[in-house]
Write a structure and sequence with these properties.
heterodimer, A: 596 residues, mainly alpha, two-stranded antiparallel sheet, 22 helices, B: 90 residues, 2 helices
């Protein structure tokens, strides 16, 4: 039995019917959608399906190969986990938006042509904005709006790129591109915005921590990883990506150290992890691409797990800032345990999932640096090693320490709800399972795997690296040098459009508006003055001529005044006999002639 | 009276720190053994760079990386980036 139903359809259509159900029927129905979707995915044979044409475009709605199948699997798994996690929220908006969003991500990775790819790419934005707005706070609304603007812009860049690309090549196929020509650069940057490249990234750290508790878990899985997929599909081996990825891996960890909002700390570490994937795609060897994909797979689980544990903390205490938390291991021991598993996985401890995937990228960078012309990759390796130590520092230690240990903030709350614990438990199990038995994961990677993570060298060196990072944390903390958490926000490159933009608006407001008013008053003054002048200009000219004449004739005093008044009134009312008017006009012309 | 939890007792915190510091030392000792065994070709150490053969390279790198990370964040990034919480609302 085979199927050619697009996985996206099951999620998007299935999601629409959720509001029809109530209570436990709704819960069962929601968990059924990803399960049915997964079975359907297993039944789709590899290759192109649902080929149609729209005018001169050849569209392939469903294209399945090893690369996107990997993303398809993990998207279904994380959807099921997240759905279990949000069962207790009973918020239909969040449910429908979540499935729409996950469906859009599935549609994007299984799109066989750029047009379909673009349509689903835009839906991804719609779904994610709905998840942010579902929080219904003013902050979330504003952050969602900024998110929408950035992604609408990114979508336009991508669309422009696709149009250029199509006009040049006449092809919409999802095949690897080289960076040459406007089209390929625009597509590259369009994807880069969703991938949260340095300077293009603040939409992520701005909006993700403002979404609903479940929404953030959804968000952490799909947008950036779909962008990673798109890069792996279209730009494997593009060297620029190596350096972009290095930047992504390095800079967010500094922010993560001083950030107070723990979900924002995780958002920064998300960028850091995606950096490893982008480096892998940039290197482009089989090992590197495998590493990037495997790390995407693992990251979706452990980052989801970490966001879930912070969500549970937020759900029970209503707080998420490190300054308000601490000591929760007493009241939420299971959440603490699961959070620590997530922390160990993202830090790549032996026996946890990050260990078996991150090192593939590192190894690819190291072996790449021995190739002539790629000597600089040694710096890539060194920065990635720095980032590996750093990620343990902020995500591996800081998150669990400030939330669950450290200074007891006095929260005495209940353990997280059962459904949340089950969801976190599944994710934690997967982290340990993949970390201990990496074979199943390796067998679904795009290329055959000849890599063994569990060598004495790797285990020992990695443990050394992590333990001495922990030692640094401990000593700095004991010495009081470790920066205390502060109620503050840290400006990032979104300052350019949140403050500079606003500042420019105000500057224009303060400079241009007064200028405008001033100009207006001048124009008004001149115009009304001119109008007043020309209203009786003719009459005054007549009077001037006539009075001189009357003076010569000998009119004086009252008589002269009366004559002047009558002439003036007659001219303004137009009751002057035509002949006199003509005479005055002629005399005026004569006067002008004489005077000039 | 609230239940006493494991880290409410400072003795336990001290104990944990003691275990941690000893494991750090043990790791350094293991590293010596590992490098010696590699020298005598008893085991094969996979190395891409010469410096990976220095004693405690990874330990040193991890430690220094984190100290640099914290110092740069605290003394350079925070003074540059820190604003009041309602900075963007003003």
């Amino acid at each position: 039995m085979t199927s050619n139903i697009p996985p996206a359809l099951i999620f998007m259509l299935g999601g629409l019917f959720i509001p029809l159900f109530r209570g436990s029927a709704r819960s069962a129905y929601m968990m059924l959608i990803p399960v049915v979707g997964f079975i359907n995915l297993l039944l789709i044979p590899q290759g192109e399906h649902l080929i149609t044409s729209l005018g001169e475009f050849n569209l392939v709605l469903l294209n399945v190969d090893r690369l996107n199948l990997l993303f398809g699997y993990i998207y279904h798994i994380i959807s099921l986990i997240t759905v279990i996690y949000i069962l207790n929220f009973k918020n239909n908006v969040e449910y429908v938006a979540g499935f729409f969003y996950a469906g859009a991500a599935l549609g994007t990775v299984f799109a066989g042509d750029m047009f379909t790819f673009f349509i689903f790419w835009e839906m991804l934005t719609v779904g994610s904005v709905m998840l942010i707005w579902a929080k219904k706070t003013k902050k979330a609304q504003e952050a969602g709006f900024r998110y929408l603007l950035v992604h609408a812009f990114g979508g336009l860049v991508l669309l422009a790129g696709i149009v250029f690309h199509f006009t040049n090549t006449g092809s919409l196929e999802m095949n690897p591109l080289t960076l040459s020509g406007v089209g390929s650069y625009l597509i590259f940057f369009g994807i880069g915005i969703n991938c949260a490249w340095p300077l293009l990234h603040p939409w992520l750290t701005d909006a993700y921590p403002e979404a609903t508790i479940g929404g953030t878990v959804f968000l952490s899985a799909f947008t950036t990883k779909t962008a990673v997929y798109a890069l792996a599909r279209l730009y494997p081996g593009t060297e620029a990506l190596v350096w972009i990825g290095v930047g992504m891996a390095a800079f967010p960890i500094f922010y993560a150290v001083i950030e107070n909002d723990l979900r924002r700390v995780l958002a920064y570490s998300l960028i850091n992890q995606v950096g490893f994937m982008v480096v892998g795609i940039g290197i482009g060897t089989e090992l590197a691409i495998n590493g990037a994909c495997a790390h995407a797979f693992n990251d979706i689980i452990f980052k989801g797990l970490l966001f879930m544990s912070m969500g549970a903390v937020m759900y029970r205490t209503g707080k998420i800032n490190a300054t308000d938390l601490g000591g929760l291991y007493k009241s939420m021991p299971w959440t603490t345990l699961f959070c620590c598993v997530g922390a160990a996985s993202i830090s790549a401890f032996p026996l946890f999932s990050g260990f078996v995937s991150k090192s593939m990228v590192m190894e690819a960078a190291a072996s790449g640096s021995h190739i002539v012309g790629q000597k600089a990759y040694v710096y890539v390796w060194l920065v990635l090693l720095f980032a590996s130590a750093g990620v343990f520092h902020h995500a591996g230690i800081k998150i669990p320490f400030f939330a669950f240990f450290g200074h007891d903030a006095g929260h005495r709350v209940k353990e997280a709800p059962k459904n949340m614990l089950i969801a976190m438990g599944i994710a934690a199990f997967l982290c340990v399972f993949i970390g201990t038995f990496p074979k199943p994961l390796y067998s679904i990677l795009p290329f055959p795997v000849d890599y063994h993570p569990y060598t004495i060298s790797h285990v020992l060196t990695q443990t050394e690296l992590l333990f001495f990072s922990a030692l640094a944390f401990t000593l700095l903390l004991l010495a009081g040098i470790y920066p205390a958490e502060m109620r503050a926000l840290n400006v990032d490159s979104d300052w350019t459009y949140r403050k500079l933009g606003k500042g420019m608006y105000e500057a224009f407001d303060n400079v241009l508006n007064p200028l405008n008013t001033w100009c207006e008053s001048i124009v008004r003054g001149v115009a009304s003055g001119a109008a007043a002048f020309f209203r009786d200009a003719g009459a005054k000219l007549c009077l001037f001529t006539a009075v001189n004449f009357w003076l010569v004739v000998g009119y004086r005093d009252k008589r002269l005044e009366r004559k002047k008044q009558r002439l003036y009134d007659d001219i303004l009312q137009g009751t002057l006999p035509i002949g006199i008017g003509a005479a005055v006009t002629i005399s005026f012309v004569v006067l002008v002639y004489i005077l000039t | 009276m609230e239940k006493k939890h494991i880290f409410d007792n400072p003795e336990n915190v001290k104990k944990l720190l003691k275990y941690f510091f000893s494991s750090v030392v043990i790791l350094l000792i293991l590293d010596i053994i590992y490098l010696l065994l590699n020298k005598t070709h008893t085991i094969h150490a996979h190395m891409n760079y010469a410096w990976e053969g220095y004693w405690g390279f990874y330990a040193f790198y991890g430690f220094v990386a984190c100290v640099v990370l914290v110092l740069v964040s605290k003394y350079i990034l925070r003074p540059l980036a820190k604003r009041e919480e309602d900075y963007y609302d003003k």
